[in-house]
């Protein structure tokens, strides 16, 4: 059994994907060009914003946006400790300081109730993550950002296609960034990412930043990066985008089967009313996580832990000086979470195996 079966997805779209890649090779247009532009337009429309700007990874999409907003030394960015390292890494890369606030015990997303106590004169930005494919509480977070004159930026690297109150992830605040890493809900065959925004000045700045700060050929008005999304990846993503809504529905079915089969057996993901998760991960919680993972492993079922160490406990952030009991909800989550196999091509028989194995182990 695969944790995420990328091969099944490739086989399902093989002829379209092979044709799309072959067309790029035929034209030899590898950098920028129509595939990238069509993807940016198409996905911006899908998300429900004016602009999309492709990047070489989710990390570069996050980094470039902080650069575009001139976040830098002396600034603080409020974020969650319960995420992939990239969220906080980009804050440090621009020279700013990540400030971690605790998470909600049910969704494991940033807890809006913890934000205001962390705001100082140095705070510039709130950067929630829409973890496991479920949007953070943007009504509450946007209200706090507005009240304090702060920017808000969704790390949507796990939530492409998710919805909150009928609006899609990446349209819920000033900007959002997704990752096209192969295992993400919309993945390419390498690295890729995109920033979405209604702010056309921000989008224009992002276009410059991803191209070495270039405003016109060999004219550089700012420091940028080489952050472009490649044309081959864009061509692959254009094929996948056409199937994405079906995949989102397939993910709902898989998640619902887990929910039904594991009800009362383990702690299940909590999806808030108004939210539609894309289940980038289907993550359960158990105080006996280690034993459960071991039992599933013996039954041939792969699992993963997202994430075993909250960021405030990572050695790289030791100098931020968080005390032992600073972020208890994140600590508890890190000790209990276990992600199960989850992808849109998962067979009912495979899910039955997972459910059975969990029942026998608990
Ligand atoms: C995957 C991920 C990233 C980084 O995306 P890449 O495309 O791998 O650079 C950032 N933040 C979160 C929450 C992620 O899950």
Polypeptide structure, described:
Helix content is 39%, strand content 14%. It folds into two domains: 6-238, Aspartate Aminotransferase, domain 2; 244-361, Alpha-Beta Complex (Aspartate Aminotransferase, domain 1). It is built from ten helices and 14 strands. With 362 residues, the protein is an alpha/beta fold. The longest helix is centred in the C-terminal third of the chain and has 32 residues, at 231-262. Bound molecules: pyridoxal-5'-phosphate. Residues 57-59, 83-84, 86-87, 129, 155, 157-158, 179, 181, 191, 193 line the site of pyridoxal-5'-phosphate. Residues 57-59, 83-84, 86-87, 129, 155, 157-158, 179, 181, 191, 193 line the site of pyridoxal-5'-phosphate (PLP).
Tell me the domain tally. Answer: 2
How many beta-strand segments?
Answer: 14
Based on CA inertia axes, which overall geometry fits? globular
Termini gap: 21 Å
Number of helices: 10
What's the layout of helices and strands?
Layout: H1 6-27, H2 34-47, E1 51-55, H3 58-68, E2 76-79, H4 86-93, E3 97-100, E4 123-127, H5 138-148, E5 151-155, E6 163-164, E7 167-168, E8 175-179, E9 193-197, H6 200-209, E10 214-216, E11 219-220, H7 231-262, E12 275-276, E13 282-285, H8 289-298, H9 328-336, E14 337-340, H10 348-361
Parallel strand pairs: 2-3, 2-4, 4-5, 5-8
Antiparallel strand pairs: 1-9, 6-7, 6-12, 8-9, 10-11, 13-14
Pyridoxal-5'-phosphate binds at residues 57-59, 83-84, 86-87, 129, 155, 157-158, 179, 181, 191, 193.
